[in-house]
Amino acid sequence: MTSLHHDRLLESISARQARVGVIGLGYVGLPLAVAVARSGFPVTGFDIDPAKIVALDDGRSYIEAVTDEALGREIAAGRFRSTTDFSDLGQCDVIVICVPTPLTRHRDPDLSFVEGTARSTAATLRSGQLVVLESTTYPGTTDGIVRSILEETGLKSGEDFFIGFSPEREDPGNRVFETASIPKIVAGDGPRAAALMQHFYGAVVKTVVPVSSNATAEAVKLTENIFRAVNIALVNELKVVYEAMGIDIWEVIEAAKTKPFGYMPFYPGPGLGGHCIPIDPFYLTWKSREYELPTRFIELAGEINSAMPRHVVSRLAEALDRRQGKALSRSNVLVIGLAYKKNVPDIRESPSLRLIELIEERGGSAAFYDPHVEEIPSTREHLPLKGRRSIPFNEESVRRFDAVLIATDHDGIDYKALADWAPLIVDTRNVFARLGIVADHVVKA
Question: Where does the UDP-glucose/GDP-mannose dehydrogenase C-terminal domain start and stop, copy by copy (predicted)?
Answer without folding.
Answer: 334-434
